[in-house]
Specification:
single chain; about 180 residues; alpha/beta
Amino acid sequence: KCHYENPLALSLLSGQLSKLLLEIDPNNQREIAVVCIGTDRATGDCLGPLVGWILMKHPINFALYGTLNDPVHAANLSDKLEIINNKHCSPLIIAIDACLGRIENVGMINIGRGNIAPGAGVHKKLPRVGDIFFTGIVNVSGHMEFLVLQNTRLNIVMQMATKIAHSIILGIKKANR
């Protein structure tokens, strides 16, 4: 994990993504699907759709789901995952989602191997998603999470989304995909 303001964030995150891609699929056999989870109706929860929006503006060589125009959120997540699994044969899924955390961790971007549980911060039970994940701690958890997500600063979310999107582009290139 690293803070979005860390001058080495792009290098660290893209390097870790490249390493994880090569660990999971050393021969580049699996198609990559990037799934950006969240909604544009709450500032704190728009991290995923903003990452998708930024990625759409670049030439990409992977499937992209979840943008400001067509978000992947709680109401359609199961349907979108079914579409992804029907359209792509055993895709390697990179999941992106916002999360809440401790005050000292706001602004941290986490990357790891495994899946995430979207909606857990607001007590929703949704399908787990991903082989690799990026999460961004956008605000503080603990009390009235829906209100906290509504009152998150857009500047932090935009900067985190930009770092994550560029890390994905660079990380996939580093993994020779």
